[in-house]
Amino acid sequence: MIKTLYIISVFLVAKSNKVKYWKHSNSWRDLQQWDFEPTFCDSVTLSNEGYEYSVLLSDTVNLNSLKFPGNTELIFGDRASISLVSQCYNVVENTYRAKRYIWSDPNNWYSAGRETYPFELADSDRIPCWTDTVVFNESKVFSVLVNENVKVGAVYFGEDEFTTDEIIEFVRGPGRSQLQFENLAGLSVTGRTVCTNPLGCLCGNQVDCSQVECPRLTCADPIKSKGLCCRYCGSEIRFHPPAGFYLMKFQETLSAYLTDLILQGVKLTISLQEYDTRINIQITVSDDYRSGASLESAGYESSQLGQKIYDYIITYDIAKSSDIRIKMSHDLVSLTKPPTAENSETTYGGLKSWLLYVILSVAVVFFLVMILLLVKCLQRYRGNHDNHTSRRLDPGRLPSALDRRYKPCVEEDPDIPTYEEVLMEDLRARGISPTTPRGPSPRVIAEATRARATPRVGSYMEVPSNDSSEITHI
């Protein structure tokens, strides 16, 4: 059973791993890399960008001239050719400006799977991580700079999977340009595509934000969060997850809670980040506002939503309140009442309320158990009293101990006699009938009368008894 649960857990975690696809390629057909749209009989120049790159030509083109520097390579497809035309009218000088794309740039990748609505990937998770699978289109040419030592789970060119050594051999083999990748030795394929930790796994690769263009911000206090390239207006909530925390389950429940709260133009991300050598769950809420928004409104809606997420985590005791932090670019308190030393703080913490709940719960349970025991004892006592009515020896009032058993809270045992039964058994053993009234028997009275009538020795002094007709001899 435990093994089955473990396999199910691994399967669920494995679903969270991503397949990352490379976006860009250096193709002659890519119109975005030309100064003008290519036409018949252009004078084409492949620009010298100062680094090596390759261009894929897959069709037949007619050119007036072609110029390219020595550090540039032109790769011909199966049906590609170049025809030089000398007699051209209205020759256009056109330049192909190839781009070298950085591996760790989050804008160069896209993920095949969809995140749990409404969450998106943080920039640090948009690049391939150490358990992700990377896919390149084998029919395209790439100019990739591996500027960092990166680790990935698997690499595919088309439908073929490659190890670290096979990638180097593949790109340098026949029909492939070694200029497609630069610093390929920095790439390592681990072969591990499953994260078995229910909490999730850190990406393990550093994101490069040098090519990311950040928007102009209009809020008073923009937030800079780990894993995001740009500052933003909104709120950040992060907390240290407790033992047994399951990230995917938390993401699903929080998503269900936010279904009716999502405001238009609000962007949310959830990711694992490291703060002070501790893993934290980080949630960011930012406004997708238009440039020129007023200072008072920028980040206000996302700050409100961030406060609701914080309250949700506190209310349901998802983590210790002392481990939860919230930052807001918009001070919500200042809108309703003057800021004070207590409400102006944007970082929350303190005594965990669950400790009080535990103490109160234990006290309530103890109180209920005591009441239950008392009721049980009372029921057994009454049952014993009703089922064993005492047979009194005379009409007089008997002690209360005669009308009950010695242990009223113990299960009824017919072998345990009552006090009255013990007394009656003793009377029978001495030959006394239970119906005999209390007091001396007639035989005892007769013997006492004869003793009084017997003459006494003279040395005895006669003392009058209580009855004046009788003399007691001493």
Annotation keywords:
alpha/beta; rod-shaped; disordered C terminus; single chain
Structural features, described:
The chain has 474 residues and is of the alpha/beta class. It is built from 9 helices and 23 strands. It is rod-shaped, with a radius of gyration of 47 Å. 24% of the residues lie in helices and 21% in strands. The strands form 7 sheets. A 5-stranded mixed beta sheet has the order 9-1-11-14-15. The relative contact order is 0.08. The longest helix is centred in the C-terminal third of the chain and has 35 residues, at 353-387.
In short:
The chain is α/β, with parallel strands linked by helices and 474 residues long. The protein has nine helices and 23 strands.
Order of strands side by side in the largest beta sheet? 9-1-11-14-15
Helix residue percentage = 10-25%
Shape: rod-shaped
Which spans of ≥5 residues are poorly predicted at pLDDT below 50? 1-16, 334-352, 389-398, 401-407, 468-474
Number of helices, where a helix is a run of at least 4 consecutive DSSP H or I residues = 9
**What average pLDDT do the residues reach?**
76
**N-C termini distance:** 96 Å
Would you report the number of β strands? 23
Derived from helix and strand composition plus strand pairing, the structural class reads alpha/beta
Note the main sheet: 5 strands, mixed
Task: Compute the CA-based radius of gyration.
Answer: 47 Å
Q: How much strand?
A: 15-25%
